Amino acid sequence: MDELCIDRHMSIRSLPLGRSVKSSRVDRPHLKSGTKSFTVATLRRYFHAGREGEDPVTQEEFYRVLDLSIIIPAHNEATRILPHLRSIHDSLSRQDRSYEIIVVDDGSQDDTIKVVRSFAKTEPALRVIPLPTCVGKGGAVKQGMLAARGRLQLFTDADGATAITELTRLEQAIRNGADVAIGSRSLASHQRGFEVNARWHRSILGGCFNALVRLGGIQGIGDTQCGFKLFDRSVARDLFSVSTINGYGFDLELLLVAQKRGYRIAEVPVNWTDQPGSKVRLVRDGIAMLREFTVIRRNAVRGYYSQLAVPDTVASLRTPSPITE
Fold it and tell me: Is 0.85 surpassed by the pTM of this model?
């Protein structure tokens, strides 16, 4: 596969120029025509920081495009998420840019929402999307991405295994022409100046998993599963609007569709530190992801990923339904 080197730390693959999509139908699925303003209560499904009695939010304010959206899926992360939120706040509050932080609570049974809403009192850019039941990491990320307003949209794991300071590397890749920039522990582990602290069995099983994925059709990517990925807004709308995988295999679906649609993907080395308390069970979840990848391949064969996410009405009637199980 052709490769264009940006510098010694990153590369862009899947070189055909990506297509932009009109996302108006995706941007406002919950807004009725003619509505001029709506209260925070109306938006609670999407943005809720736990602050009652706020003034009504106008359409203009709600749809104001920001520089950056950070989406954090969280399931029972009450004991791990706060340091990451503090780090993000400390980093972004010193920068001259507009941003939002969206935590999607994936049906947590602990105090995750309580912890996040408490921190939101000191960070007005923070919102919570509470899901009533656990839908899976992929489903939670999708909810946050489709509700985000940033020109750039990052999803990052709640444990902060990849520090927010690594965002600058991904943003540089976007500025250099990538449509999607993904953090890579694989590249980092082979380059000086980077540190990847991972348990040995996790590294071995992860390498085997990515080898199988490459055989299955995702080419030129050494690390598909790093929870630190940055998207151009229109590309995020396109990819997440057709995503069907709610489990950990959702990254595989996004990357396969991105390659099929000609988007340029930059794999960027990032520092990464394994955090205690991981919800991932390598063998069990690895097998589940391989099953999900089988579903993704079947959807691809059926042509579900071949069209833009927002087709015209006639085309949408001909689009086959995806397999979800």
Answer: no
